[in-house]
Specification:
2 domains, globular, 9 helices, mainly alpha
């Protein structure tokens, strides 16, 4: 394995490790040592630095094809990314007690508003959909490591986050878990939640689609390859 791929794997481990930190017992010790604001600042700096390193290592890695990417696979991100963008917008603009330092919202009258009635992890699903769709469409070793690491972080992070919340919140976690689901629409299918487009917010859906259109237009000028087949 070349040095470039080794650097990419190392960056992937650092990126995933930093983002899994809040789901480990180290989080409590760091909060006691640094305080809430200090911990949040440290985590933000570490996460940002790890992301920059990860992206730079991916950009520097050589192209090595693992499977031929037929034109049909190029349509996968085009079909998946609108949903990922909507989930991303909804996740960042909806009050979510699962977010960092937002535990107080578990005590709200409705702790699972809007998109949380679809999934309690909208941002993680946005990352997973983005990563998996691009991994399929690229088909090279560097993309497998880069997007695979992002997908693994998102998919493994969800049960780890749930486990930590269940351990630290006790009885407060039960009602929230019963009325939401990690996997999209499971709670709705089982009759435990009733998602409504009006509650999710039409403006969030419109903004997600607008961001998708902007990303589609900027993909070629900013990243090189066009997003269109």
């Amino acid at each position: 394995m070349t040095g470039s791929f080794s650097a990419l794997i190392l960056a992937a481990c650092a990126f995933v490790g930093v983002h899994l930190l809040p789901s480990t017992p180290l989080r409590g010790g760091l909060i006691k040592l640094l305080g809430d604001s200090g911990y949040l600042a440290m985590f933000s700096v570490a996460a940002g630095a790890a992301l920059i390193w990860y992206a730079a290592a991916y950009s520097a890695a050589p192209y090595r094809e693992l499977w031929p990417a037929p034109t049909a696979l190029r349509y996968v991100p085009l079909a998946v990314m609108p949903f990922a963008m909507i989930l991303l917008v909804c996740g960042y603009t909806t009050r979510n007690p699962m977010a960092v330092m937002q535990e107080r919202h578990f005590h709200a009258t409705d702790p699972a508003p809007g998109i949380l009635k679809v999934t309690r992890h909208p941002i993680m699903w946005a990352i997973a959909l983005w990563a998996l769709s691009h991994m399929a469409a690229n088909g090279d070793q560097a993309s497998l490591i880069f997007f695979g690491g992002l997908a693994a972080l998102a998919l493994l992070g969800m049960p780890l986050m749930d486990h930590r919340r269940a351990e630290t919140l006790g009885a407060v976690w039960g009602p929230f878990a019963l009325t939401t689901s990690a996997i999209p629409f499971v709670a709705a299918i089982q009759g435990r939640a009733k998602p409504r487009l009006s509650e999710i917010g039409w403006w969030r859906i419109a903004l997600g689609l607008a961001l998708y259109a902007g990303a589609l237009a900027a993909h070629g000028p900013l990243l090189g390859p066009s997003a269109l087949p």
